[in-house]
Amino acid sequence: MWGEIEAPLVGKLVVVEPLAERHAEGLWDAAQFPEIFSWMPYDVGADRDTFRSWLADAIDGPDVSFGVLDAAGAPIGSTRYLNVRPEHRGLEIGWTWLTPATWRSGANAEAKLLLLEHAFERLGCIRVEFKTDAKNDRSRRALEALPAQFEGIFRKHMLVRGGELRDSAYYAIVDDEWPAVRANLERRLEELVRG
Fold first, then answer.
1. Rounded distance between C-alpha atoms, residue 166 and residue 89, angstroms
2. CA 7/CA 4 separation, integer angstroms
3. 9-194: which CATH architecture?
4. What are 44-50's contacts with CB under 8 Å, separation 24+?
5. Contact residues for 113 (Cβ-Cβ < 8 A; gap 6+)
6. How far apart are CA 118 and CA 64, in angstroms?
7. Over the stretch 175-189, which tens digit does the pLDDT of each residue have?
């Protein structure tokens, strides 16, 4: 499928590789923090059946799913290419979650850098999209820090968490913006790695 990677995407802090059954136990452990999923459609770590259903859908579903591992190879979360549109040279990065121990560590920024680099420089994307719950200020700040451009709110976009209405905030990066986004992410990561 268009968007798949042939080899792991390796950074200084994280490795992004195709999601596989071998990641299950590490991801189960990483998902044991309900605060990760407060803005997601459901809590992946709520119980083993929910987790197994999520993993099967992620591996076998229509999206290109990835495991995010720390530099030592331990699973710390997951992300996906969604809404893959090779005919329009576009896709979405989403369903991203990382265990709280990695928050503000640079892991998310580096995973985004690796995925964006693959999308723009190897796949030839001209547009990469993101969406988040309009009320999720933390996620919106992270997207704006890339920086991705805010494109608007889709009102009553979806039903989540047992029927709750969600408005979705949409962001995107286009190919003309990618060099500046890349430079910004590299600078931020360098600052984090230097400490």
1. 28
2. 9
3. 3-Layer(aba) Sandwich (3.40)
4. 44/97
5. 11, 182, 185, 186, 189
6. 13
7. 999 999 999 999 999
Residue ranges per domain, the chain?
A: 9-194
Residue 193: pLDDT band with limits 50, 70, 90:
confident
User: How far apart, in whole angstroms, are the C-alpha atoms of residue 106 and residue 173?
Assistant: 20
Q: Which pair of structure tokens corresponds to residue 116?
A: 């964006």
> 85: which 2 tokens?
């549109």
Residue 46 has what DSSP assignment?
S
State pTM to two decimals. Answer: 0.95
d(CA 195, CA 191): 6
Strands (E), 19-141: 64-70, 75-85, 90-98, 127-133
Whose CA is closest to 130, among 186, 69, 83, 86?
A: 83
